[in-house]
Amino acid sequence: MDAASFLERLLRLDVQHVLAAVLGVYLAQLVAYKAYRVFFYPYFVSPLRRLPGPKNHHFLIGHVLNQIRSGHPNEPYLSWMRQWPKTPHGLIRYLDVGNSDAVLATSLAAHKEILHDKCYSFQKPAFFKRLIADMVGFGLVFTEGEEHKRQRRLLAGLFSPGNLRALVELFRDKARHLSNLLEQIIDTEDGAVDVVSLYSKIMLDIMGVFALGVELGNLQPANNTADTSFDECYHELFDPDSWGQILMGLNAVFPVRWLPFEANRRFKQARDTVRDQLMAIIQDRIRTVGEWKAAGMDSNAYRGKDLLTFMVAEKYYADSDRWTEGYIMEQILTFLAAGHETTAGALTWGTQLMIEHPDEAKRLRAEVDELLRREPVPAQRSIESLPYLHNFTREVLRLQAPGVNVAREAIEDVVVQGVVLPKGTTVLIQPAVVQRNPTIWGPDCDEFRPDRWDRLEGEAADPWAFATFALGPRVCIGKAMTMLEFKIILIELVSRFDFEGLVAGAKLSNIKLINPSPLLRPEGGLRVRVKRRRA
Length: 535
Ligand code: HEM
Fold this sequence. Notes:
Layout: H1 3-12, H2 15-45, H3 64-70, H4 77-83, E1 91-95, E2 101-105, H5 108-117, E3 122-123, H6 126-136, H7 145-156, H8 161-189, E4 192-194, H9 195-212, H10 225-238, H11 242-253, H12 262-294, H13 300-303, H14 307-316, H15 325-338, H16 341-356, H17 358-374, H18 380-384, H19 387-399, E5 406-410, E6 414-416, E7 419-421, E8 426-429, H20 431-435, H21 438-441, H22 479-496, E9 497-501, E10 527-532
Parallel strand pairs: 2-8
Antiparallel strand pairs: 1-2, 3-5, 4-10, 5-8, 6-7, 9-10
Residues 140-141, 152, 334-335, 338-339, 342-343, 346, 402-403, 406, 468-470, 474, 476-478, 481-482 line the site of protoporphyrin IX containing FE.
C-alpha cells in the first residue's frame, strides 16, 4: 500500500476508532509496565535484590499479608531482625504492595543516615498519609522539606523549658483528677477498670488544654452527652471495629470511604463531629485574638498560651504566608492525635509492667515516697532528678515503644550505607527493631530491667539506640513534654494505688494487640484491678 492510499484509509477511520486504538495502546503499555514492575523488576533488576531479606511473600502484594497475619504490629519485622541481626549495610529488603521495593533499617548508622544526614531526601509515604491522615490531620507530621523546617522553628517555642514549666500544674491537676476517678472506680466497680480508655481520656483532656486552651470535659460521666461526644468520636476514629479497620486499610490503597457501609457512616460522622467542634473553637479564638490585636495587646502575651492561640496570633493574622482556619485545624488534629494515644499507650504499658514486676514497682514507690516526704508537691527539677523514675520510664518506652513505625519514602535516589535506594523505595524504621535487638541491647533485651540504664555500654549507649521518639530534624517535638507528664502521672499512681492483673497469666508477651495499627494497643483494652495502696 502506498503512502497516499494509507493516508486515505486513515482519514476514512472515524475519530472513535482512532481514540480506541490510542487508548488500547496506552492500556497495553500500562499493563505491560505494571507486569514488569510486579513480576520482573523486583527479582531481576532492582539494585536491592541482593540485600538479605525474607522471600516468603505473596506474588502480588509482597509481605503485606505476612504483617496482617502475624497478629502483631511489630511483626514480622522483629523476626526478620532476629534472623538478620547484623547485615553488612544495616538494611533488610522486603516487598510492599505490588512487590515494590522496601527496606527495614536495622543498624544505628542506617537510622542516622536516613533520619538525620539525609532527612529531607525522604518523605512520609503516600500510603501512610492515606492510612492515618484522617485521624492525624495534615499538620506538622505531614509537612516536608523547607516548609517543615519553617513550621518546626515556629512551633518549637511552645515546647521550650519555660513553657514546659508552665505545664507542670496542668499535668498535676489531671493526675489528681485521674486519682479521683480511680477512687470512684474502687468504690463502684470494685476497682475493675480498662486503663486504656481511662488513660486515653486523661491524655485527651491534657491535650485539649495544651492545644486548644479548652477543657474537653472527657472525664465527665457518660450521661453528659455533649461533653463525651468529642471523646466518643475520637474513640471511633482511633478504635474502629474490625470491619472499620479493614476499611481503613483498604482506603489507604484506593478510596472506599464513599461505599454505603455502616462502618463508613460511623467513621464519617465521627470525623465530621470532631472537625465541627474544633472549627467552632477555632473561629471563636480567631475573633478573640482579633479583638486583642485591635486593642493593641503585646504579641509576647500570646506566646505562653495554648497552641491554638499561638497559631492564630502568629499565622492567621500574619502579614504573609498566612494559615487558613482549615489549616490551623489540621495542625490541631495533628497535635491532639500525636500527643494523646501515644502517651496513653506509655501509661498503659507502664501499668502492665508494674503488675508484671512488683519488685520494680516497689522500688519506684520507695523512691517516690521519699520524694513526697521531702516535697509534698515536688518541683519539676526534683521530679526530673529521680534516678529510678527516669530509668523506669525509659525502660517502659524502650520495651513497649507506643508508636510502631517511622515510615519514609525516598523522593530521589539516595545512598544509604553504600546502597542506592531508588526513588520511591519505602524505608521502615521500627523502634522495637532497634530496642529489642540483642546485638545492641544484649541478650536480655526482651526483659524489663530499668537498671540497665545505669550501665549502658557499646551501641546501647549511643543516643540512636533509643528510637521511641525517633531522632534528627523530625524527632518528636513532644518528647520532653511526654517524659514530664508520664513521670508526674506515675508519681500520682504509685503513691496512691496498687494494680493487679484481671486476666490470669496476661503478660506483655501474650496480650493480643490491635493489628495492623500504627500504635501498640491491646485489643479490647487492658482490664486491671486498682486498689488503694496497702503499704
Ligand atoms: C509516648 C509518647 C510519644 C511517642 C512515643 C511519640 C513518638 C513520635 C515519633 C516516633 C515521631 C516521629 C514520627 C516520624 O517522623 O515519622 C513523632 C513526631 C511527632 N510527635 Fe510525638 N510522640 C509522643 C508524644 C507526643 C506528644 C505529647 C506530642 C505533642 C504534644 C507529640 C507531637 C509530635 C509531632 C507534632 C510530631 C511530628 C514532628 C515533625 O515531623 O517535625 N508527640 N512522635
